[in-house]
Amino acid sequence: MIRDITIGQYYKAKSVIHKLDPRLKLVCTLLFLISLFLTRSVMTYLLATLWLIIVIKTSKVPFRFVIRGLKAIVILLLVTALLNLFMLKGGDVIVRIGKLTITESGLATTIYLAIRLIYLIIGSSLMTLTTTPTALTDGIEALLGPLKRIHVPVHEIAMMMSIALRFIPILLEETDKIMKAQLARGADFENGNIFHRVKGMVPILVPLFVSAFRRANDLALAMEARCYHGGDGRTRMKPLHYQKRDYIAYAVMGLYMVLSFCGGRWLPLHFWVF
Amino acid sequence: MIHAKSLIYDYETFDSEGNADGVVRALDDISVDINRGSFVAILGRNGSGKSTLAKQMNALLLPTSGTVWVDGKDTRDESELWNIRQSAGMVFQNPDNQIVGTVVEEDVGFGPENMGIPTEEIWVRVNKCLKRMGLEPFRYDSPNTLSGGQKQRLSIAGILAMEPKCIIMDEPTAMLDPGGRREVMKAIKDLLAENLSVVLITHYMEEAVEADYIYVMDQGHVVMAGTPVEIFSDIDMIRRYGLEPPQVVQVVDLLNSKGIKLDRSILTTEELIKALCQR
Fold first, then answer.
1. How many domains does chain A have?
2. What ipTM goes with this model?
3. A43, A88, A198, B84: which one has the fewest Cβ atoms less than 10 Å from its Cβ?
């Protein structure tokens, strides 16, 4: 049933990574992504590979789940890689196919780019796989907290995100219902050219929007009836508290950043050295 | 617990350009009393004003004139707004549209969080309310996986966690199957056993039969008020207000007209069976 789908791609397992504070995971993921772009050195990438392997192993998430996120970017990856490979000029020519040439720097850039993109996706997938959407929302709210000073409605944004998470499956189910109702009345969503099909979506979108607004209205009433009045004076059922393991994780992450940066600076082994 | 005196509520209607083009009187000179620990049913056909009255009972709407007191507090007193909503909780019709949390236990905690209850106390309340509504096995599940009856029980648990004195239910069973309806009615009986007041707005007469007191509404007026026995003894009157009397009452009425004399105070199937067997 459509309601059973989980939003995001949380993988249920009992591991240290799952238990870590969502704020920490957000910060570490960001740091990891930065580390990928700081230097161009084999050392950095070897370290990143090792890091990913260790994190995947401790998180107990099966490898195929981790790389599932890559499917979405395969095309993007191929196109950018091919363009880089043939378009960038610099250094000696390695291969010549008719008018197309592959140069040393073109090859190096392509490899860096591919590795960076793949690691970027794997790194962020690991975060979403090990953190529930609710925890992520809480983490984002806490991290963006300082922005409240400059009147950014952080609590409201987080609340909207978590409500969206709750209502996506419901609205999906509703879309399904409306589509069936329109099909039963002879609507055709599959034939005709693209304009025809886009036009066919109108009778789905209009009732969907009407119902979404009605739901929003109902929910607002229900929330008010349950004393909701914004983030002021609100307490938390599950407040975020850093545990000992979180501080250790921060320390490990700091060590990784230092190693990655220094390794990249002082051992600048480049690919074409091989 | 809740008292309304000569309550009038008007709302403006708007034309397609958004200009006010009229005033509709949704509630006209309503006076009701809901005593502590009592079970009051409000009946009426669609558009009779019964949901509007419910929203007056926890300050979601405010009177145009007249007064509503909830637990001794005037609903127009803004400083008491959150106390009023806390002491008179409200359960709505559509179970999907009133659940906020993405996990069952978090939804129960939503009300206490808003009230600023300390974390440890929230957990005590959540655990207690989940147990009271029989939802413990589902506490880590997504509300989307629950059945209609379970969702309404979750809504009730979410209100209970705010420790109200009265729960107002606006057609809580209208979207449920018979099984779900029974679940909710059982939950209501459990609440009554704990000395909570329940105001049940419904158009299922069978549910109203068990109430201590019934108000029948039509076109913004309270047209009948009394105990179930008093209300249902006048079948013609009930029909005039667009309501269908409970099946048992109809059977008793038919049997009486065929010469089988039965007591008019029979309201439930069990009572009817007993009376027929004694003959």
1. 1
2. 0.87
3. A198
